[in-house]
Amino acid sequence: MPRPIFAQLDLNALENNLHVARRMTRARIMAVIKADGYGHGLLRVADALKQADGFALLDLHEAIQLREAGFRQTILLLEGFFSAEDLPLLAEYQITTVIHSAWQIACLEAYPERNTLDVWLKINTGMNRLGFLPSEVSAAMTQLEQHAAIRDITLMSHFAHADEARGVTEQLSVFHDLASPYRMARSIGNSAALIRYPQTHGDWVRAGVMLYGASPFVDTSAQQLGLRPVMTLNSRIIAVQHLRTGDEVGYSAVFKADRAMRIGIVACGYADGYPRHAANGTPILVDGVVTCTLGRVSMDMLYVDLSPVPKAQVGSNVVLWGEGMPIEQVARAAGTISYELMCALAKRVPIREG
């Protein structure tokens, strides 16, 4: 009998979440499916989101996979190409590339083909990760507009604070000032901006984490936004221990019982993708009842308090995150974000579609 842990994927939830995004905007929706579809499976996610207007990812070979699987939407490489050798493949498979640095434009200078490449020029409006500084945008734009290979240009940037109280005002103002001289499509909105700042939508919005059923905000749940969880990480209790007052649990004894209590041992650990740094009290669902983790997460197991679930026993169902246990709550308690939990799902965890 296989180990009881598995990830259940509700592919209908992906479609639901795309429809939620559609109701929020008139812009075209670029579904972000990088990191193997946020851990859900690239082709599986793309097929469920086939009504999206485009797909965004990082890896050229994954983009080619989509084309060879029959997807005809715009496919965007969010970090662009990494070598001039990639350019013929971009043209052959009609893959759009971000241009964020002068070295990429220099690569284009040695590319002889005409009218074959669509590009998104990335502007650094304050995140200071990728993109041309405001003082560099005009020169970069001139080079691209004059290059024979460039067929179409879209302007883009990325928000650093759309999910926080600071918001988007500063970066949006910089972007509008720089983009105003150009009659080109624009894309600056991520999931948080799509939901909260309609003035950012432009021509394309890049929907990411919301498509997978997680809220980008700490003050608004996915359920409140009409989003449904796509991934539910399930396991079972494989042993029960009876603790006395003063008994310690797990490595380094980071939990000590202050009373007699029952605890469950769950077949899930950091080698499955559950965060090792999840602290005592991280919420978890046992037989449909919310309880919490105890002690330090091991490679293959973790501990849960069975006090709120007196009938729980070996074989009881456990939901680590997903249906009934919002992933945002788990991530917040573990000092991380839902994106990391999804993407960290280990290859050894079986995936079931539903």
Ends apart, CA distance between termini? 21 Å
* Biggest sheet, spatial arrangement of strands: 2-3-4-5-6-7-8-9
**Strand-pairing-aware structural class:** alpha/beta
Count of distinct strands = 18
Q: Main β-sheet: number of strands, strand sense, barrel status?
A: 8 strands, parallel, barrel
Q: CATH superfamily assignment of the largest domain?
A: Alanine racemase
Query: What overall geometry do the principal axes of the alpha carbons give?
Result: elongated
Helix content, binned percent: 25-40%
Q: What is the helix/strand order?
A: EHEHHEHEHEHEHEHEHEEEEEEEEEHHE
Number of domains: 2
- Oligomerization state: single chain
The CATH level-2 architecture of the largest domain is identified as Alpha-Beta Barrel
Catalogue the unreliable spans.
none
Number of H/I helices: 11
Rounded average pLDDT: 97
Notes on the structure:
By secondary structure, this protein is α/β, with parallel strands linked by helices. 26% of the residues lie in helices and 25% in strands. The strands form 3 sheets. Strands 2-3-4-5-6-7-8-9 form an 8-stranded parallel barrel, surrounded by 6 helices. Strands 10-13-16-15-14-17 form a 6-stranded antiparallel barrel. Strands 11-12 form a two-stranded antiparallel ribbon. It is elongated. The two termini are 21 Å apart.
List keywords for this structure.
8-stranded parallel β-barrel, TIM Barrel, 11 helices, 354 residues, alpha/beta, Lyase, Ornithine Decarboxylase, Chain A, domain 1
Structure summarized in a few sentences:
This protein has eleven helices and 18 strands. The chain has helices at residues 11-24, 34-38, 42-48, 60-68, 87-93, 102-109, 134-146, 169-179, 191-196, 327-333, 338-343, and strands at 6-9, 28-32, 54-57, 74-77, 96-99, 117-122, 150-156, 185-189, 204-207, 231-243, 248-249, 255-256, 261-266, 283-286, 289-294, 302-305, 317-321, 351-353. A hairpin with a 5-residue loop joins strand 11 and strand 12.
